[in-house]
Amino acid sequence: MTSPTAATSAAPSAAPKRRRDRAAREREILEAAERIFGERGYQGTSMDDVAAQVGVSKPLIYQYYGSKDGLFLACLARLRGQLLDTVSDAVMEAPDAEDALYAGFVAWFQFLDDHPQAWSVLVDEGMLSAGPAAEATDEVRAAFIELIATMVRMNLPAGRPVDEDEVQIVAQSISGATERLAIWRTRSTTPPTPEKVARTLQDLLWQGLHTLKST
């Protein structure tokens, strides 16, 4: 017979284990959902698909995320955090502003290489047309554009007034270029390395910023 003292002492240790088990299960669900959303698109993915991939019941996924929109939003939040953290860390570790451009571009394309379905989930406009999940993809894009804008400001000469219109024009242009390059690389049988793409982008941007500096 278990004594009351033993039962009481066992209860606290059981709760952290349940939390660990749930965290591990949620990670498995999100990883599977990211793959399936990336391969089949939002409309082509069902909760049954995800449940079968992970080996759990569909009601459990509904319990965790509420709906397919909720599951997709959770995938977006996870990938967005991973991508922005990866790029931000690379930028912050660079020795100077010019190298930060290169490091940020390398980190962006390397992340997409390491997470091949991430692109479709994060910013593919064909994934969704409306609703909270579509709004969330716009937020991902806006966060990346602001990160680029920060790098642009870092590379302007000291003492030069910051023209926010110019900064946004450059940042929006770079964002569009990186998105198109990401699509091209995923479809190419021999894509250039992240380093080569980053160096070319850096050279183009650096020349453009020097032109802005002279005006």
Automatic annotation (TrEMBL):
UniProt GO BP: negative regulation of DNA-templated transcription
Region (Disordered): 1-22
PROSITE patterns: HTH_TETR_2 (PS50977)
Superkingdom to which the source organism belongs: Bacteria
Segments of the chain annotated as binding DNA: 46-65
UniProt xrefs under InterPro entries: DesT_TetR_C, Homeodomain-like_sf, HTH-type_TetR-like_transc_reg, HTH_TetR, Tet_transcr_reg_TetR-rel_C_sf
Domain HTH tetR-type: 23-83
Keyword Magnesium: no
Statement: the UniProt record of this protein carries the keyword Transmembrane: no
A single GO molecular function term of this UniProt record: DNA-binding transcription factor activity
Composition skew (Low complexity), residue ranges: 1-15
Pfam family, one: TetR_N
Keywords: DNA-binding, Transcription, Transcription regulation
The protein's name: TetR/AcrR family transcriptional regulator
Protein source organism: Kribbella jiaozuonensis
